User: Which sequence fits this backbone?
């Protein structure tokens, strides 16, 4: 009877799926805590995400060297969602229900996060998401260790205004993060008295490689007698040709500075930065941050990758903070049970790499300093501005009419990701 | 257009012209056929024989000139499927049959029947059709290959199958392009017999190089050269024509 | 210094002269001491202090400080923690070599942690640029004076006006003189201190000068200026905008041609493998990528072993890229494609598999990140043609694309290999009968197409990412070009690439980059309906059967 | 007509589908979780996804395998069906979105849309959405086919412009102004027809619906391919101009199968969306469409069962390899494609047949000698 059922399963082709399952179960027998790593190792996003997989492996190795967690060793489970968004959901499901991981560190793009979100909700697991994003979200099972718009975009604009910028180009790749960020910035700029004709908004497709027209447009927009700056939410690959075109067309940072939210040390590694000196980026971490923690982290990273040319960047620091917060929360709860960790993690603090101590807020975002860096000719950033204290991540922007009344608080008794302060109800506008 | 012609001619071509990239393939071609007539068209390479057939069947549109079918229908506005439905069947120089279909299916698809998508989707083969296929198979001597894939036929058998398919369409006019190419002498003579047998009931135009074959057909011959008719008449008449001799021997 | 004549002078005079010299030297030294005092304030200075220091240096007007300012701008100025002295520093292995800020003499070498950088930001760099412009107005070098004039034009700093006027009076070089006058006009036009008539004259001058920087200066004329000044401003702006519109169209064409040259390079190899051989090579993009990575590897080697050769790195990389990509192409042809002739769609599948393998291979060897490929100096920057900015890299890529095209055309038309290629394409069996080694010709043709893809990679490395995804982003566009132009025809690829490039660039300003691209694709789809075999189809009976 | 369409192989295939439809929900629902016989929910969704792909492959095989139209843009029809279903699921969310806007989906709210775009109307009704699942891809296929087939665009040219079609659509759907959620696409679905999408029962229900759809699509394609029209299709594939000279309007036949195939692809997409929980523009990417072609080629072009098997095999390989060798799986997958085209020119099913034939042949007649 049992045999025949097995045969039946094999005949259905489900056998192979079952085989992966049982293969994984075999590992699960050993006394380890599993940590899922869900970053694309192939496809278009591999360029950014592979590093994050490496940093997770390093952090887990370090934790194990310190004796593991709750007396057990940590075991990383790495899968490749291949920059394929539905595959992210499938792999998340596999990590949680087949590999039985206690927490997952992963995703880069918003769409990949959106894709896995229902899975984490349904199977009640934990996701640590390390990348700056558009906000407008707070989910019980997700911890946002990257920047929300108020932790990156708004301080950057403030800095430029201080530098005398009066005319703004908001240039971005056409997807949800730039769209939302630019909506927020547009509102913010208008609120602070910038006229509509002094704002130019431009969107380009993913992987846009011919920037001649747009750089030309920026130049002519900048020749209206007012100090002009570009706020760039241009994503990933498109940045290299954009900066090359800027450099070659002679747009200098002293004339029209470009402040970018998606360009970090990794992206600059592919460009000759000499013509770009002085262009800016806003992040919560720069490799050039002069602190002992950072120096140690970079040394470990070089040792781990056996390559002292590898750079570090902001999402890596986000994973560093997120992982340490998870470790502390698990230690505090005494278990890796997601419900217990969700309860214990709010308020947990972990040192960041820029000399401060970040804390997990009730809305599952963390406090971070905001740094503005200028590109140097060696591919690094020189920090020219730092917020005086840490800024708490705001899940719901105050500059979008519909999200203004919303707040998130996952502690008892509210336990709500979109509480409407006007109607006093959980669940949006009510 | 005179009344006389419209009543008499099944196919009437007048002053056709066609050029490809400056090269005049057809240059003032006029030609007409009566119903049931057997006609051979000869001419050296590049004389415009195939292009003429292309124009009759709607594959190529002439730049200038008239092409009338049955005195009423302007052929220059019809495409291949239209002309086939009007009753013009065509055999290619290279035998073209449906190789992954059986011999029977090849004929079945050629049989005169509704050709629309819906009709074919719901069509069932009737006994009468099966019987007709049997007759055709006998005519082209392929009775014992009925269930075989057409791909497995010999070259000559494919030629005959294609002729069989033409007949299955029951056309008023058959255009046959070099039917004897690649055939043994015996097969060639048999093919001539076959075509002669068909003529009368159907009008037939045979394009051929093989003079022996043309002689065996024993019909009126039209000689094409540089896209125009240079002689027409019995085989003896045209072979005596100086122009024809010059064209054939002069190069 | 003229020491030799001194020796033959009578003693008394010599003594007098010596005392004069000492006095002068003292004056110089005291000026220098003042400069040093100002510079010393840079130790551990915040940005506003640094800015003030620069302004003070500019006000002191000592031109010998210019090199120091340049070093400061480049982030090479450090202060020693032990005594807060300020130096120019150069990295020497793990240490810093410290140089005197004025004389440039080496004075010390300290550990990495013993000195700290004087930090600069954009505002400071701008201030330095302005200061340098003021200090270098009387520089002996023409270029330096021109640069100073340009900077003053952009800054429109009224405080520089007296120095500028003085420099203008001294100036002999006509070009520089014009530039000074332009800068003066820009300052006067926007200065509220100038008289209205002066301003109107200055504005008129700017209007005649034209260009977007004049527009910039004119736009900065404040709205509270007298009516006649404002009227002059409006008419001047209108005039400039008119000429800019004309130049804008020219610029569109140039950008379209440039985009077309990129498309041509990406597609021309495909025109050979796909057009001539009928092989749908989905790995074409990856061959382009291999070319780009070859360039990267060459530059790496040069960086390490022979930095002097950097400017010729592309010339070295081009033949290597051709060989690498061509070699891989021959391997693909011999290993995969030759078994699939006559089944073009199967080659699509197999080469798709090859493309996945190549991508992953490069990812495993070079890592998934972008790799830096530098522009040699002759491909950096831009020049102005009227109101158009033409960047050197794009200009060279256009030239390169046309050269590759011409070479290929010559190869196909005039060499035995080309003849054999065409023979095999037109009638494989007959070519084989006539003694053409068809297998060898196939391999060479495919290798040629692949090699050209490698060349495209060298060019693309100059404007785009060098990452394992490089090829993927060009493959669809390349197919569009070949199909639009008409497969099997090099001229078709040329016409197709430039048509699509220019069309794209003309649509972009109106429809935006995304919609523009969509419209071009829709246009291609519709165009193929009209001409099912592309722009330069080989027509006639032979092709159809 | 249906009976005529079903040979032994089809019967076995349908039998397997039937067993799946019964066994999968049973093993998932009736067995206690953790027992060896229990099929995890994860596997149910996964199998459901594979079968959606199988239906898509069957649809492509109808046009490519039987009519010789190599569409490199079939992903577009799949995605359109998916979007039609996704739009319905978005409307089903109603006021349970994060901003609790009863009318507008979340992505419209935070991008400050004030009104529902006109093309979103009607999708709140399931029947309307189901019509659109067929109509949207069908209409696009009709429009495209009408032009392309009448202009006699064939072969590689046709393939490349279908690629242009899906590429253009991808770029269009990426645009946020289009009102389809841009790069993020449509996600956060809550339920379908009142059933919670996160419950295992709904998942099993969707799985059964997918099996039914695959069976339906398969039988429909069998009916078409075994009819006289199917013979005409093959005739078009093998000798298009001969078919024309026999009086068949080739463009009509092509248009017919192209539209049917697009609609089936749309149906597959509609079932795919609720099972994976997201539909976004990357489904339109040319690479996805090429992958569909690879399924069909690998399984066996011109055999509907083969196409379905190819889709399941490749997807299964991808699932397993991305887990087993996250950093090397592309080598394996790429190698698989190369080797399969070189050594299995008629696909897996063709190879199996070949082996059978070779085994049976020596008994009856000597092996055929290669032609001299």
Assistant:
């Amino acid at each position: 009877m049992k045999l025949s059922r097995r045969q039946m399963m094999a005949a259905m082709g489900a056998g192979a799926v079952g085989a992966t399952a049982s293969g994984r179960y075999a590992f699960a027998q050993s006394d380890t805590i599993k940590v899922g790593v869900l970053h694309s190792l192939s496809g278009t996003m591999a360029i950014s995400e592979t590093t994050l997989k490496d940093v997770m492996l390093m952090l887990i190795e370090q934790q194990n060297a310190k004796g593991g967690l709750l007396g057990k060793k940590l075991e990383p489970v790495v899968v490749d969602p291949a920059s394929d968004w539905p595959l992210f959901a499938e792999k998340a499901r596999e990590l949680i229900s087949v590999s039985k991981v206690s927490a997952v560190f992963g995703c880069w793009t918003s769409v990949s996060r959106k894709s896995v979100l229902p899975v984490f909700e349904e199977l009640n697991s934990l996701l640590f998401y390390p990348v700056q994003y558009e906000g407008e979200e707070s989910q019980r099972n997700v911890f946002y260790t990257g920047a929300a718009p108020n932790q990156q975009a708004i301080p950057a604009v403030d800095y430029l205004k201080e530098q005398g910028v009066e005319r703004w180009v908001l240039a971005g790749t056409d997807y949800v993060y730039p769209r939302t960020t630019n909506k927020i910035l547009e509102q913010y700029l208008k609120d602070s008295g910038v006229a509509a004709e002094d704002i130019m908004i431009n969107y380009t497709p993913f992987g846009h490689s011919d920037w001649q027209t747009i750089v030309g447009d920026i130049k002519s927009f900048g020749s209206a007698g007012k100090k002009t700056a570009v706020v760039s939410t241009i994503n990933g690959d498109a940045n290299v040709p954009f900066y090359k075109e800027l450099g070659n067309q002679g747009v200098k940072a002293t004339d029209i500075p470009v402040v970018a939210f998606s360009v970090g040390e990794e992206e600059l590694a592919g460009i000759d930065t000499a013509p770009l000196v002085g262009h800016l980026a806003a992040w919560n971490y720069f490799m050039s941050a002069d602190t002992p923690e950072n120096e140690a982290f970079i040394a470990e990273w070089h040792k781990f990758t056996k390559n002292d040319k590898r750079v570090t960047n902001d999402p890596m620091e986000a994973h560093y903070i997120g992982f340490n917060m998870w470790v502390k929360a698990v230690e505090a709860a005494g278990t890796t049970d997601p419900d217990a960790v969700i309860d214990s993690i709010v308020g947990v603090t972990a040192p960041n790499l820029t000399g401060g101590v970040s804390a997990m807020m009730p809305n599952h975002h963390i406090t971070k300093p905001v740094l503005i860096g200028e590109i140097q000719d060696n591919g690094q950033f020189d920090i020219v501005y730092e917020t005086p204290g840490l800024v708490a991540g705001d899940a719901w922007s105050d500059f979008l009419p519909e999200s203004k009344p919303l707040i998130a608080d996952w502690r008892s008794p509210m336990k709500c990701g979109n509480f409407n302060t006007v109607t006093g109800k959980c669940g949006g506008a009510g | 257009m005179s009344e006389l012609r419209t009543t008499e001619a099944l196919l009437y071509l007048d002053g056709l012209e066609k050029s490809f990239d400056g090269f005049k393939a057809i240059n003032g071609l006029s030609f007409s056929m009566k119903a049931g007539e057997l006609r051979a068209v000869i001419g050296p390479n590049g004389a415009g024989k195939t292009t003429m057939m292309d124009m009759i069947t709607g594959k190529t549109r002439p730049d200038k000139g008239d092409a009338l079918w049955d005195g009423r229908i302007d052929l220059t506005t019809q495409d291949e499927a239209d002309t086939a439905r009007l009753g013009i069947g065509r055999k290619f120089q290279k035998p073209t049959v449906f190789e992954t279909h059986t011999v029977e299916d090849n004929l079945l698809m050629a049989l005169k029947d509704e050709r629309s998508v819906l009709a074919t989707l719901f069509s069932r083969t009737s006994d009468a059709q099966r019987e007709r296929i049997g007759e055709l198979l006998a005519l082209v001597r392929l009775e014992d290959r009925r269930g075989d894939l057409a791909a497995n036929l010999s070259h000559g058998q494919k030629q005959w199958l294609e002729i069989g398919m033409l007949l299955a369409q029951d056309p008023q006019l058959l255009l046959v392009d070099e039917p004897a190419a690649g055939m043994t002498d015996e097969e060639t003579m048999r093919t001539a017999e076959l075509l002669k047998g068909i003529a009368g009931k159907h009008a037939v135009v045979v394009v051929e190089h093989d003079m022996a074959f043309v002689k065996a057909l024993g019909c009126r011959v039209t000689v094409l050269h540089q896209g125009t008719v240079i002689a027409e008449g019995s085989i003896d008449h045209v072979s005596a024509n100086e122009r024809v001799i010059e064209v054939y021997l002069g190069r | 210094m003229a020491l030799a004549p001194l020796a033959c002078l009578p003693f008394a005079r010599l003594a007098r002269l010596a005392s004069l010299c000492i006095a002068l030297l003292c004056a110089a030294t005291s000026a220098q001491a003042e400069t040093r005092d100002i510079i010393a304030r840079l130790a551990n200075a915040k940005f506003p202090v640094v800015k003030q220091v620069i302004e003070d240096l500019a006000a002191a007007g000592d031109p010998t400080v210019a090199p120091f300012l340049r070093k400061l701008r480049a982030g090479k100025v450090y202060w020693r923690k032990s005594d807060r002295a300020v130096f120019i520093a150069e990295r020497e292995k793990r240490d810093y070599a410290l140089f005197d800020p004025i004389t440039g003499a080496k004075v010390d070498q300290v550990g990495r942690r013993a000195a700290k950088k004087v930090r600069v930001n954009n505002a400071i760099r701008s201030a330095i640029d302005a200061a340098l412009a003021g200090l270098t107005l009387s520089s002996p070098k023409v270029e330096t004076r021109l640069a100073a004039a340009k900077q003053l034009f952009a800054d429109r700093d009224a405080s520089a006006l007296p120095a500028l006027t003085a420099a203008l009076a001294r100036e002999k070089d006509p070009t520089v003189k014009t530039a000074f006058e332009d800068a003066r006009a820009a300052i006067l036009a926007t200065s509220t201190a100038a008289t209205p008539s002066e301003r109107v004259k200055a504005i008129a001058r700017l209007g005649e000068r034209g260009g977007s920087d004049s527009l910039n200066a004119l736009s900065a004329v404040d709205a509270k200026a007298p009516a006649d000044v404002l009227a002059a401003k409006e008419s001047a702006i209108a005039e400039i905008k008119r000429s800019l519109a004309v130049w804008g169209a020219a610029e569109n064409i140039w950008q379209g041609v440039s985009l077309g040259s990129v498309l041509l390079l990406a597609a021309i190899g495909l025109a050979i493998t796909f057009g001539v051989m009928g092989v749908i090579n989905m790995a074409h993009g990856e061959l382009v990528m291999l070319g780009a990575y070859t360039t990267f590897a060459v530059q790496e080697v040069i960086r390490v072993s022979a930095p002097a050769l950097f400017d010729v790195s592309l010339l070295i990389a081009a033949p290597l890229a051709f060989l690498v990509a061509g070699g891989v192409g021959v391997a693909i042809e011999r290993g995969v494609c030759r078994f699939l002739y006559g089944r073009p769609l199967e080659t699509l599948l197999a080469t798709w598999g090859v493309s996945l393998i190549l991508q992953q291979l490069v990812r495993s060897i070079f890592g998934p990140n972008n790799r830096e490929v530098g522009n040699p100096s002759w491909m950096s920057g831009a020049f102005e043609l009227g109101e158009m900015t033409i960047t050197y890299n794009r200009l060279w890529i256009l030239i390169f694309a046309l050269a590759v095209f011409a070479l290929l055309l010559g190869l196909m038309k005039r060499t035995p290999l080309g003849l054999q290629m065409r023979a095999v394409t037109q009638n494989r069996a007959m070519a084989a009968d006539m003694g053409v080694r068809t297998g060898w010709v196939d391999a060479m043709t495919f290798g040629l197409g692949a090699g050209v893809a490698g060349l495209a990679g060298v060019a693309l490395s100059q404007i785009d990412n060098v990452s394992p995804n490089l090829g993927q982003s060009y493959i669809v566009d390349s197919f569009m070009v070949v199909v639009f132009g008409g497969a099997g025809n090099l001229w078709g690829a040329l016409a197709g690439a430039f048509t699509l490039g220019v069309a794209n660039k003309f649509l972009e300003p109106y429809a935006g980059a995304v919609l523009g691209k969509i419209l071009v694709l829709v246009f291609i789809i519709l165009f193929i309906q009209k001409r099912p075999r592309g722009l330069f189809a080989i027509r006639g009976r032979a092709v159809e059967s | 007509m249906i009976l005529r369409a079903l040979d032994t192989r089809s019967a076995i295939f349908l039998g397997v589908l039937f067993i799946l439809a019964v066994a999968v929900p049973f093993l998932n629902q009736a067995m206690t979780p953790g027992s060896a016989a229990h099929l995890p929910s994860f596997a149910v969704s996964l199998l459901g996804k594979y079968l959606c792909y199988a239906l898509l492959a069957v649809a492509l095989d109808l046009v490519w395998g039987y009519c010789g139209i190599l569409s490199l843009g079939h992903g577009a029809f799949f995605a359109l069906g998916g979007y039609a279903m996704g739009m319905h699921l978005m409307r089903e969310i109603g006021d349970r979105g994060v901003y609790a806007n009863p009318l507008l989906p979340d992505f419209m709210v935070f991008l400050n849309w004030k009104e529902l775009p006109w093309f979103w109307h009607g999708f709140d009704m399931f029947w309307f959405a189901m019509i659109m699942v067929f109509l949207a891809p069908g209409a696009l296929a009709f429009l495209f086919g009408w032009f392309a087939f009448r202009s006699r665009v064939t072969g590689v040219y046709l393939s490349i412009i279908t690629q242009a079609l899906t590429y253009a659509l991808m770029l269009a759907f990426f645009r946020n102004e289009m009102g389809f959620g841009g790069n993020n696409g449509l996600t956060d679905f809550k339920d379908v027809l009142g059933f919670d999408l996160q419950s295992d029962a709904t998942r099993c229900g969707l799985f059964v619906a997918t099996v039914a759809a695959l069976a339906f699509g398969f039988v429909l394609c069998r009916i078409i391919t075994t009819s006289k029209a199917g013979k005409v299709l093959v005739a078009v594939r093998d000798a298009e101009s001969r078919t024309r000279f026999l009086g068949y309007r080739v463009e009509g036949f092509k248009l017919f199968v192209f539209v049917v195939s697009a609609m089936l692809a749309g149906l597959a997409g509609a079932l795919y969306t609720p099972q994976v929980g997201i539909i976004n523009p990357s489904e339109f990417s040319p690479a996805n469409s090429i992958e569909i072609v690879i399924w069909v080629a690998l399984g066996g072009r011109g055999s509907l069962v083969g196409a379905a098997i190819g889709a399941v095999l490749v997807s299964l390989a991808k699932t397993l390899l991305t887990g087993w060798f996250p950093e090397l799986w592309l080598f394996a997958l790429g190698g698989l494609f190369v080797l399969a085209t070189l050594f299995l020119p008629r696909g897996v099913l063709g190879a199996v047949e070949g082996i059978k034939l070779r085994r049976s042949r020596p008994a009856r007649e000597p092996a055929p000698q290669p032609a001299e």
User: Anything to note?
Assistant: The interface with chain B takes residues 1, 224, 227-229, 231-232, 234-235, 238-239, 241-242, 244-250, 252-253, 256 of chain D (CB under 8 Å). The radius of gyration of chain D is 22 Å. Residues 2-31+38-289 of chain D form one domain.
